[in-house]
Predict the structure.
Amino acid sequence: MKTPSLSDAQSFLTEAESRNPGPWVGHSSAAAQAAGAIASQFPGLHPETAFIFGLLHDIGRGAGVSGLHHILDGYRFLIELGYDDAARICITHSFPIKNIHAVEGNWDCSDPELEFIKDILDRTEYNDYDRLIQLCDAIALPDGYCLMEKRLFDVTLRYGVHEFTVQKWKAYLQIQSDFEAVLGKSIYSLLPGVEENTFRIKIHPAEK
């Protein structure tokens, strides 16, 4: 697959953080760890590749503060380096349903850029890596993991609803169901701290 090495991916993230520090970096690290953990028990997925994809899915935020333009910035950054498979994740992670209107946030892209993204989505047949990073993006907080429903609700509170909101929620939940059917268990059983992050429980060190 056309993807950078782990050391290069980590360097890219460190450099991007120096240009635009923020909670997106912790979110990216959490998504990467979740992707690696799930991939380690999922047939056909390579844990390190999944980790790298998770680490880089928001790398476009290194270009500066932006809305949804970060997905295009990340795609262009990785394409220029020849990492086509990692680049597509920068686009696909935001679209559990292939509709450029089914996203939350500010579409700070020009009309030609929107058409470019739409064309990529139309030509891309999602694979398990695309779906895995969509899943991990939907459960990763800057400081760990939470139930998907909490993160979806949090995003909706910040950006509001649109005509595709329920359809998008259903798509995320279907991805989770599909992965769990193969794993034979809940994805949350592979991830630490879900209960604490979801319900903000503070556990005394002696209780751990």
In short: The first strand starts at residue 140 and ends at 141. The mean pLDDT is 92. The beta strands are 140-141, 144-145. Residues 165-183 form the longest helix (19 residues).
